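The record is given unchanged here:
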Amino acid sequence: MRQSGIATAINSSWLAPEEPLVRALADRARLDQETRARVAARALDLVHRVRADQGSGSPLDAFLREYSLASREGVILMCLAEALLRIPDAETADRLIADKVSAGDWADHLGDSESLFVNASTWGLMLTGRVIQVETATLGSARNWFGRLASRISEPVARAALRQSMKILGHQFVMGRSVAEALARASGKRERAYRYSFDMLGESALTAEDAERYLDKYRAAIREITPTAARPHKVEEADSISVKLSALHPRYEFAQRERVLAELGPRLLELARKARDAGVGLTVDAEEADRLELSLELIDQVLTDEVTRDYDGFGLAIQAYQKRAPKVIDWLVDRAGAQKRRLCVRLVKGAYWDSEVKRAQERGLSSYPVYTRKANTDVAYLACARRLAAARGVVHAQLATHNAHTVAWVAEHFTAAGVPFEFQRLHGMGEELYAHVVGGEWGNFPCRVYAPVGAHADLLPYLVRRLLENGANTSFVNRLVDASLPPESVVADPVADVDAATQVAHPRIPLPADLYGAERRNSPGANLADGEEVAALHAACAREQAEHWHAEPLTVGDFTVAGTHGIVNPANERETVGVVTHATAETVARAAAAARAAHPGWDALGGAARAAILERAADLLAQERPSLVARCIREAGKSIPDSIAEVREAEDFLRYYALRARAEFEGDVLLPGPTGERNVLRLRGRGVFGCISPWNFPVAIFTGQVAAALAAGNAVLAKPAEQTPLCAARVIELLHLAGVPREVLHFLPGRGSVVGAAMSRSEDIAGVCFTGSTDTARIIERSMAARSGAIGTLIAETGGLNAMIVDSSALAEQVVLDAVASGFNSAGQRCSALRLLIVQEEVAPRVLELLAGYMDELVVGDPALLATDVGPVIDREALAMLEAHAQKVTAGARWSHRVRLPDACAAGRFFAPLAVEIAHIEDLEREVFGPIVHIVRYEAAKLDAVVDAVNARGFGLTLGVQTRIDSLAQHIARRARVGNVYVNRNMIGAVVGVQPFGGCGLSGTGPKAGGPHYLHRFATEQTITVNTAAVGGNATLLSLSEK
């Protein structure tokens, strides 16, 4: 992937340490003592004025104050507003109302506010809540519950009242359903004091059709807001439009960089030309941190085009909470200056903070792309504002804030510098504050309102962000008018706060590496949206791929072999990536005997010593990540993100089982008992374990099995899958290098019918840990049972017929993203992969429409390319099975959709992902291991029967639930007989120690891998009882004092 100069210019700050960065920004934002005093005085004056006029602001300001997210009722309202209006059927709407409203204590809020809007809303919710609080325990029978409600007020009235309440709430956030309606509202007496930037509601487009629809909306909006004679003709003063790039392309992400630049670039240029010709401004909105570099490349295309030569209305939003913001401004100023362009720059604080923090933790990044404390963001905002002021002539600064101190700081600094600027605020918020800023004794500054336009159905993502951003206790919207807070604390100088802090970063937000505390380090990930890091990874993998890999038995003494076989790249069968030498049954027998002899010494080493070796191995795996990633790609056909996740999971297994070994296998557990006696419990390894791992996780599961057995004090014979011995061989080499003795850990590649069979029938083997098909697990079980020696232990994790249940309260876009990730990631070759998508009939048409459109955007191809979403299946046998099933299941199907395979796939083992509707759950008789998702519709009233039908299939591995009704999700989880339940997310990627993984029934024996009980299955328990009074009496008892 070609690097951009933008990456070099800005990305060094992406994950920079927070402390030095914020300290430096504080110095940039610092004012001299006299100016600081003037800012403080102006800010205090502004707070006093706002508090004196309290009640004159917007109804929404009052509403957010009363129902902040610190209250249970505030959270309930957010959930209702997010979901109720999109639910098409009465059954699910009734369930949601029962789930949410009955939990609120609305009476506590009645009369607290002077706002008629707030009190009217509270009265309606209180009345509904009181009626609803009849009996809510029987949520499974929502219609019965609502029947009781209808005996008090009518059923349609109750439901309609709440729907209308949510529409009213939505109206406060939305300027109008159309631009024409918004313009009419903007012509009101109070509204005429402002400029407007209209935002077309709607978030990321999932399909090409969605993207085209949003593009048409933007085109139409530009036409409608073209300035008239009554409006200013200077572009900086005219109304403008805000554009979300994610709405204009279904794959607006760094991995699809080349395609996005080629396809989205011309669309943005078209809109810029239309906006220029119409005399209106156009601002590119800021989105997630992963998209920043790509967005700047697109903006650079516009900057260097003739369209901006004499057009000063083009611009972008910059999020001050991103650590890269100062460098972004520096790059923009230099770039615009070099091109002799003038840009509008909207400086905001940022609205994706919580998701950025979570994403960094999940990905194991070295730090966060955002600041972890509000004061740090405030300081960064002021430093960025000062840089914008210094760029007069190149930048028109647009300062978006609801913070009185920030308003005063900006007004003082920009006025003193003689730099023109404008403030910006959100529609429906900050009216009390800005009433004094845009015209009055305090100030007379221009202000632009960010005004959402669209239907309520498109409101949801925006609404949730605004509620989260402005409903929190730390929000200035709340603090400004909270009389319990001294005005001085409300307008505290963030620079002084940072100066006084002994620790700049938030003490309760650990770095991603420290997510699990001091006992276990989170495995490091890769930032695949950083062009420079991606380029470095590609280069390292290319060096590894230049080698010709070889795997052979790694054991002690002489061994016999059963021939050498080539390993072919499943994405390109013309390429042989390495060779493997197979072991024989005789070699297995010799290795088992050697391992049995070595076991006592390894077991006696103790849990702490074994843990230290496993932790060294984890460090080596992290160092050797390019080597393992390259093997996963070329041998197993795994994509780059999947390969990185695989190595991370292997490292997590090593560290987690090391942690458990220290806690449970080091020393004895003292048990209670009678005086004069000492009772202890001790865990010991069983002996020798045979570990038989699958090809779909050739590093992670292989490492997890071996690490668990070793941690518990066992010697190990490790058999990799026939298709992926090269990955496993490298893991064994690293374990030996870390200090696991060769006589304790033996590597035996070969055929299952030879090596696996020899392991399962060997009298030297105390147990087998197996991951694979249910049929093979049964063969191993029978083979072990037929032995004449000790009863062996079988730990088996087998397949799953995994379902995702979707009700009509679920967000269709989220359902599709999660279903595609769950069903098609890793070419559907995961035990946890989605096989059955069960959708409530009312929303099935929309879900299927979105699913088909999004499937058309998937990239099937070479897994070595970052742009690839779906790689090959493992071998020709798997491909033939999938094609046969596809032909059978699509014949006469009510609906099906399949991804088109590009010509480049002809040389590999590629199967085009398929989604197909079937009539009944029972029609899917077995697990189909590949990228095929079967879809079934269901009636809401028959939900329990649906869960029972899934249970009846006999498998019990994973289950997904998509609903906004919390109690319904819990009801399904209690009824379902599965090992892992995932609510409102995808069903794959269980994290070690966080989501222990494993099923029941036909899906395995348990216990769960990566969980606190797993090592116990690899161990025996020994109780030791000592009569301490046998010699000389009970000295302890006799020595007790009288007190």
In short: The first strand starts at residue 195 and ends at 200. The CA atoms of residues 270 and 522 lie 45 Å apart. The longest helix spans residues 640-664.
